Automatic annotation (TrEMBL):
The lineage of its organism: Bacteria, Pseudomonadati, Pseudomonadota, Alphaproteobacteria, Hyphomicrobiales. Residues 1-24, 588-611 are annotated as: Disordered. This is Polyhydroxyalkanoate synthase. Transmembrane segments: none annotated. One of its GO terms (cellular component) is cytoplasm. Residues 297-510 form the AB hydrolase-1 domain. InterPro entries: AB_hydrolase_1, AB_hydrolase_fold, PHA/PHB_synthase, PHA_synth_I, PhaC_N. Keywords: Acyltransferase, Cytoplasm, Transferase. It comes from Bosea psychrotolerans. NCBIfam families: PHA_synth_I. SUPFAM superfamilies: alpha/beta-Hydrolases.
Amino acid sequence: MNRPKDDKPRLDAGSPDAAPETLAPDFDQFTQNMGRLVEEYGKVTAAYLKPIERGEAKPAATEEVSEMVKTLGRVAERWVSDPRKIIEAQASITADFLSLWSATLKRVSGEATEPVAQPDKRDARFNDPDWSAHPMFDFVKQAYLIGSRWAEDMVERTEDIDPHTREKARFYVKQIAGALSPSNFVATNPELLRETLRQNGENLVRGMKMLAEDIEAGKGELKIRQSDAHAFEVGVNIATTPGKVIFRNEIMELIQYAPATEQVLKRPLLIVPPWINKFYILDLNAEKSFIRWCVSQGLTVFCISWVNPDERHANKDFESYMREGIFAALDAIEQATGEKRVTAIGYCVGGTLLGVALAYMAATKDKRIDSATFFTTQVDFSKAGELSVFVDENQIRAVEEKMAKSGYLDGSRMAGAFNMLRPNDLIWSYAINNYLKGKAPTAFDLLYWNADSTRMPAANHSFYLRNCYLENKLSKGEMRIGGETLDLKKVTIPIYNLAAREDHIAPAPSVFLGSQCFGGPVDYVVAGSGHIAGVVNPPTKVKYQYWTGGKAEGRYEDWIAAATEHPGSWWPHWFAWIEAQATKRVPARQPGDGKLPALEDAPGSYVKMKA
């Protein structure tokens, strides 16, 4: 039966039996597309097998699967060891399903009923009206919610289990629940079913084609595209703030940005970004660029651009990044400007490195950094957040064994770990959009940056995992670098410590604890949103807010409850803090005019290296 072009298929909510009548596709076209779908699936298989045939396949994720099975097995053991408790758990879920079945029967017979289970208001997976309007899909949705919440509750109610195992179990249950959501399958998602019938399966053909391309790009592993990879080019329409590379060594390039004002603050600014991502998160575009905004305020801005390491950098450790990164940058800034003292910013793990450097400098009486700002940085890892599920002796050993073979950790591993913290938003939503709806992702600079991952040197990453996440040595005063035992209490310079209220990577309570590790004045500030949006929040967009409340004392919960909320960006508040410390201004400095000639235009070469 050929359906008129303007007759959009829909799911008839009035009667489940009537739904198929309004969903008839063009069967000839549908059959042809199913044949094409099989052809595209063959390409998917070929893309997967090609690295295996060439001997280039990456090791399978057997360790991760084994860890998940062992963790959830420990939870199951606690329940089955007590027959009374397992009967209680079974009775709980059985009662919920009986309630759901009863409510569904009443609804089908025409009675109004209240839902047994409803999705969270922020859960966008079930926004399509047919999830609630159509009894069949409403039943599937509620059954899924009952089952996934029951599994989560089982983890929470497990007795005699250590906190780390419980945290891992929560994480794995979240991954499994996300993967099994009915929204991920055509047959159980009303929107996908409707779209597939409307397009006669053309969406699935396009999606299968993109799936083959993404497996090809991942060299045998699926690398889900989150943005249009061809819409941006670093240095062309992203990372475009004018400047010059004035120094380069094995692990970093130092960029000096061109001034935008005739006078600048005498004291330069050094930015230390994380090496697990590329620095241009702070220079996405002219509107959102923190670096460009700093230049416009009259700061002489220098930024480290880390190399994308390979096997040649295997032995570059934390001390190497401190000496050849931060200390080399300080030397270069003095040559470029004549200034011996700077203010510094460290972002995420770049902030952890800056904290280590400050403690080392305090121990060796090095006073070249006058004040420091930390963006979503942890120095105390006792409440390290969801990433800690990846850190224990067995998992670190497995990572170290992988890195020993290549000399580095592949950037996709860390990117995958970050995506798994929000699987519904950063994994499954794109899988549905790309491979089931057949829609190419839109051009989004933030997600382009997110996919532009970097590798990590074996020695550096191993030191970081063990000394920070596993043993928390920095906050305990036990970390040793360059023959010195580091004590953050000896760091007495002024510190601006920015946390983000919804940060899953460096949780605000963890940053709050870290504020108490330093020996000098610390201004603790909390930004709205998360790890990225809380930092990249320009004043022109009054999108989020920030909180101030003075010294980080007592409990985080008490501090935030008493803090003062301010609308808009924290950037001007931070700049006022910077300017008050050293108000003197001097004529603007041009990159390359000092003792260090310009090597090339910003953003340099290192940032363009692909993983």
